[in-house]
Design goal:
180 residues; alpha+beta; four-stranded antiparallel sheet; three-stranded antiparallel sheet; globular
Length: 180
């Protein structure tokens, strides 16, 4: 539900991470699939404001038999102020526009688990982009979490946009595999 929420928010300034799960119920229908109702709280995914609770979310997640990408309906309280989020996203855009560092062979976090502050925006963008993949690939028995950003390529564009091609490593829970 949280990966779906982050993907739909579409903003690195609006990213959330799980704080706690308060309630959860599941119903299994062998012919249809599994439906899960959840109530959970989130925190802002921002190291400068660590631990800021953003209120409760409620979600209904429906896993169809043999199908990835669960259907999700999620509602969260205390959404980010739209104007502030747009301002933060624009500052990020300006910062990424000025980025001169060659990015192709990069590991975020490094082998010691450290993310350099200058590379944090790339990690946040990778986390946001990975949210779609992690939601899409989730099944009743498999779920994912971003482990590492292993390469970044800035793509040329004909306009003022900035495009990146990321390769990330995802931790596949249950199997414990790390997949690109």
């Amino acid at each position: 539900a949280l990966h779906f929420f982050n993907f739909r928010a579409g903003s690195p300034s609006a990213l959330r991470v799980l704080a706690t799960v308060q309630e959860g119920r599941a119903w299994v229908n062998p012919q249809e699939g599994c439906e899960v109702d959840l109530v959970f709280s989130t925190e802002q995914y921002n190291p400068e404001q660590e631990g800021e609770r953003l209120g409760k979310c409620s979600a209904r997640v429906f896993f169809k038999n043999e199908k990835p990408r669960p259907a999700v309906n999620v509602t969260c309280a205390r959404l980010f102020d739209k104007v502030k989020r747009q301002e933060k996203d624009y500052r990020l855009y300006k910062q990424m526009k000025q980025l001169k560092t060659p990015l192709h062979s990069i590991s975020i976090p490094d082998s010691h688990g450290h993310i350099d502050n200058s590379l944090r925006p790339l990690w946040d963008l990778a986390f946001l982009g990975s949210s779609y993949v992690m939601w899409e690939k989730t099944t009743q028995v498999l779920h994912y979490y971003l482990v590492q950003l292993s390469s970044v390529e800035r793509l040329k564009t004909d306009d003022d946009s900035i495009d990146f091609d990321f390769t990330v490593l995802l931790h596949e829970f249950s199997t414990q595999e790390i997949i690109p």
